Structures
1.
Amino acid sequence: MDLELTDRVIVVTGGSSGVGLALVDDLLSCGARVATCARDLDRLEAATSALDGHDPGRLLTMACDVRLADQVDRFIAAAHERFGAIDGLVNNAGQSLMRGFADTAFDEWMSEFELKFAGVIHPVTAARNYLAASDAGVVVNVNAVLARQPEPRLAATSAARAGLLNLTRTLASDLGPEGIRVNSVLLGLIDTGQWRRRFVQRGDDLEQSWEEWSAAIAADRGITLGRLGTAREVSYVITMLLSPRASYVTGTSIDVAGGVGRYV
């Protein structure tokens, strides 16, 4: 099926690894033009240059910290100047803080809130007029099932994710009259760099393989499919939401979590 993304301009934050990098790859494969950013430009350029079979003229990479409005403004302006339009925005930059309530310092709470909210507010504010000028303007916020199903071991992250889910629904209402759709994907446990690092740093059975270790994590978290997801599985859903074929989908969220969600 043609997703009608050929020559569409999509901005993706946090494109140097995991879901963001998989999404950049998929969008380029769909014929889109892509602008992506990360704080570490060397890492971003190394990651994107390793993608096979893409025209480098259809990709813009820049260093940008999404917490800083001036950097985001420059990035969005550069994307528009390079490609002449912006049709879609994926707010993907983020990370998780593995801390319980009692172990989370106040500045860590504030840091989590700043990243989760600034990482959406600044890009949406900077891209809003360009998205409104598109005939298929769309925003996708990458969130997590923690937004609806708090994890005590991720106290600050869970709270910030819940706020972002609320904000996403508000943005859908506010931007809808301008022709901009706003949706989110709620991730479960995805096999990305964070989990791989935790595997390497584990202090338990060092004889366990990644497959054994990750399957045990999946069982502990109650994942119905019995495994962690992949970045590519998330990317497919985001790509669908970005497609003009999803033109009547807004204000909603889709779980990409292997059945871990226990809410109705």
Note: Strands lie at 9-13, 33-38, 59-63, 88-91, 138-144, 181-187, 190-191, 229-230, 253-256.
2.
Amino acid sequence: MTWFGWTGEALAASLGLPQVEAHVVCRSTMDLAHAHAAAGAPGGTLVIAEAQEGGRGRNGKVWSSAMRAGIWMTLVERPRGDATALDLLSVRVGLRLAPVLDRWTSAPVRLKWPNDLWVGERKLAGVLVETRWRGMHPDWVAIGVGINLEGPADHPQATALEGADPVEVLGEVIPALRAAANAGGALRDDELADFAARDVAKGRTLAEPIAGVARGLSPLGELLVATSEGITAVRAGSLTFATV
């Protein structure tokens, strides 16, 4: 099995990973990654495909990922640090990926809480983080990432990288993901500042997850929303802008 002509063994050697499973087509890299992790695969195991027939997103959404139209992948990590940092991992992945992907975009990559990367007003990439626990401790975390190499014809609100070689992009993305997965603690002041500089929602009126005006993030990765009752910290949900 290969990915853009590369075998899993060749990708593992190039990326410095213990194991890479490459597919032309699979149902879901996330499902395969969980299966490998449950069987004992080490941290740094990567499952990647040129196309997915049943890719998974937040809230159980399923979609197909077109052949060679993006980088469809899931990375397994086995964090040994502060488990509470896993609640922030989607945000930290976005923070690490955005400056990497700037290289292939016409404008700076922006961040849309909790797990999307945009260019302008269009979605470029998405992140899905799922953790499996053994008692009170995380056994592994699966970090799913989809990055558009071509703008999906059926999603005019999406955008894509420009002139990007997928293997070159992957070589920049993997270190960013591994660094995010191994970061601990609450969001630091510099991370909050970096998010604020790329925040697509800050100062805009929201319809969801609650009505109000977005005011950035808390150190715990919560969305801060100004309402008539004051500032509300939202831990989870989907962000939708109000129409005017």
Note: The mean pLDDT is 93.
3.
Amino acid sequence: MLLTSVRKLKSFGIIGMNQRNFGLVSKYNPRHLYPLVDDKLKTKMLAQKAGISVPKLLGTLHFQHDVKKLRETLEPHKQFVIKPVTGSGGKGILVITEHDHNFYYKPSGDSLRLSDIKRHVSNILSGLHSLGGKPDTVMIESLIQLDPIFSDYSHEGIPDLRIIVLKGYPIMAMLRLTTHASDGKANLHQGAVGVGIDIGTGSALHAVQFGNPVSRHPDTKKIFSELTIPHWDKLLPLAAACYEMTGLGYLGVDIVLDRDQGPMIIELNARPGLSIQVANCAGLVPRIAVIEALSSIDPDPQVRADFSKKNFSTTLRMLPPRKLRTRATDLVTK
């Protein structure tokens, strides 16, 4: 049975955690560069220096005694996002969409008092959500405004796009759509929907929630097969340019589309997860092989993006739910 499972995974070209860690992360990402992406404040400054748009920074809190300044920091802003600077996997992120006197409202409509937010901030500072449990810094950002194209595809939150970049070439993409189950967060483990995206066209290929195939958004019931991401020709070069920006050969680039500001980088990841393969019903192995076979890396991000569109595009449309269920199950249960 185990041998059969291994053969199935290999037939899909799926890479596992060990192969990712040793064959990609260790191979292409010098450890001294990790802080550039593990620290969201450093990432933001790096992107701004490179002329890349990022959400506006509204404030930071570094120590427990800074919590008493929270009311003053939040008062001018009706909407905002609170994040741990070194958090991962969406942990510790608090989204507030409305502020009315002493009440702060989450995308779900649930209300919080200032004392609740202070407690949350204090937990972040103590390292509850940080990498390694070390004391952390709180970052308060402006809230991204939903692009109308996603109004039927996301619920109670803002979707984001994850693009895997190898040696400066985008090789796989996934759209993460917020749901009621995910509490408005674009996090697959919390219940967001992962939609595999065709590198060539920006169109939806497959979709999963909690590892199970879906053809419609669980809350809005909108069909995913009709989804195509706008500004695709701008998004791929933007992701490709993060190679020069960070020096990291293997990274995940997280992008949002703001209604007013357009594409923005919200996060970079030196150890991107592998669930993007499940969302695409395809493995990374063949695409990695194409890039590693190149004799040189083109210095132009646009040229690299065009190469990826040509080599990693698929003519497949979204599979019917029954076929999708069979293929996705093979991937997520092994």
Note: The first strand starts at residue 57 and ends at 61.
